[in-house]
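User: Predict the complex.
Assistant: Input components as received:
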Amino acid sequence: MSATILPLETPAAIIDVARMQRNILRMQERMDALGVQLRPHVKSSKCLPVIQAQMAAGASGVTVSTLKEAQHCFDAGITEVMYAVAMVPGKLALALNLRRQGCCLSIITDSVVGAQLIVAFGRQHAESFDVWIEVDSDGHRSGLKVDDCALLEVAQVLCGGGMQLAGVMTHAGSSYELNDLAALQAIAEQERAICVAAAEKIRAAGLPCPRVSVGSTPTALSALSLEGVTEVRAGVYVFFDLVMHNVGVCRPEELALSVLTTVIGHQVEKGWVITDSGWMAMSRDRGTQRQRRDFAFGQVCTEAGAWIEGGLLGSVNQEHGIVTFEDGQDLDLVNRFPIGSRLRILPNHACATGAQFPHYHACEGSGEVHLWSRLHGW
Amino acid sequence: MSATILPLETPAAIIDVARMQRNILRMQERMDALGVQLRPHVKSSKCLPVIQAQMAAGASGVTVSTLKEAQHCFDAGITEVMYAVAMVPGKLALALNLRRQGCCLSIITDSVVGAQLIVAFGRQHAESFDVWIEVDSDGHRSGLKVDDCALLEVAQVLCGGGMQLAGVMTHAGSSYELNDLAALQAIAEQERAICVAAAEKIRAAGLPCPRVSVGSTPTALSALSLEGVTEVRAGVYVFFDLVMHNVGVCRPEELALSVLTTVIGHQVEKGWVITDSGWMAMSRDRGTQRQRRDFAFGQVCTEAGAWIEGGLLGSVNQEHGIVTFEDGQDLDLVNRFPIGSRLRILPNHACATGAQFPHYHACEGSGEVHLWSRLHGW
């Protein structure tokens, strides 16, 4: 990042494009070396130029969290799309519409009822949906346990009902709670092994299960082997953030998203510098609260991006952010951080902070700044 | 709210228009009875039909948290606008532009430096800005203490520099932390008394201080007297939410904003119902965490809006919400809340939840549903 950022109104969400490109390359090279495809989860950026940079680096397709993202990617020429939230009847018409446009949209389910609903709709509309079965590899959220007899039943319902069984997929979201390399390697191996075992169980029953999809940023960056896996999904690696920093999968100089903010006042006797980066800019995400280092609502940096040690965005109102300092009262705050001067705040969670903004300001090393719009809503 | 809501994709932010209208009327009638003007803070809705309903009920103008809101209101014919975040040089050009268009935009400051910067810009552009001095009535955030000698100095800088001193304003944000009527009445009186004292101090020095503006939803609804006050600012009362419910200023049947969500799965052995209302829909706001009743990420209701006692949105991922029940495991969850069925979630903080959506679905008692867009960004 160049030392001087062009004048921008604040608060603004700044992407350091050079860092982002390095992050994309790092993940793509790792996946290439492990012999698997990378299908980035675009929920992190929801921004076409970012997604296009991931595709240009070698991604095989995208993962989306909403059908709006799917449509957006498809409109830009990306056809290989997985909608990675369990499908429900109310969303099947949109999914069908995307497929009828030519999008190779795959969907997921983790229950017999869910599979039956997809089959019923598919038959009604003469559509053979590509369906993944979601597997629970860590008890974190959704998915079928590998030893649940429903796993085979779902596969049978889908195949018997004329759907295409795309494969099995899982997400070891509990990896976000770790911060130790050995533990990360272990959860990555658990994610891989359980998902591969689910695929093998289905294949052993004589059903097709061509693909095995796993992933989260921490496991993708920690896995020692991805044997049996065909593709990895990961999202936040494109920007990284303080949560990932605490997990231990990125260095400070890899954080590619920050919020540019203006100093709007002080409460000197309290040691507060007040900024225009409230929760409307940062989000209310407190992802580092229970991690090894609590960054409150964000790490304070100079406008050029250098960490101000001990400077945290301590609390937030809607449009007010209160910067506090570890060493408490500092009578020179008014001069060090005068009204109108600017700071940058590194967010806990890049996905949540990005979502507060209609667009990013993407800053090139050359000093050039692009306005990149991002999706909002469903 | 009618028992059946028209088919909508989920998640969707639902406004119960009848409740909203009653909330607007309740606050307006209270302010009328207390003899003060009401200047609603539109940061809560950022939505023109909501703001227009407030104006139609008798509001004297609006309070905004961004200049984008100011422009939006002005474009709709609302000329009396207070931008209630301390002004900085980088935003003065936008403020000037609004005033040159004919908007009666007033701005605020809480420091001598801030006042000097406004004066310098105003003189440079031959503009006499209307400026409020922000007073700190509870140590919560910004503002000058009434006994700070800078209070008079700021007034002198503004008046001496050719600006119009609009008056003094304060916001007793600490009222959100209370839940007892006597304590709420006390903080309301403190907010009033301190702000009036600041005005009197300025007037005693021979300077004009025509207006006294106070407010927050809890203090506005608790004040016994507003003597000396000319106007009240309040925002979230238009929808109310679980935080305000815990503060004790609204009843459950006054909560006018909810998130409609679809059941997408279950983890039966854990007693979980999984929905499509993750943090992207609810926000990460945990405003009830330290209140007398912790609603986690929201209170679960039936689709028609009836509270399901003990049902909470216990945790959230980006697009997944996990509903948990106080009584723990319930083997009938799959039948009680089948895949594809719908629930409604009442949010902790209406301002934060609304901000996650590009539009509201405004439901009339007749069953009619309007799509009301809301502002996003700065």
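Chain A touches chain B through 58 residues (CB under 8 Å).
Let me know if you want any component modeled separately.
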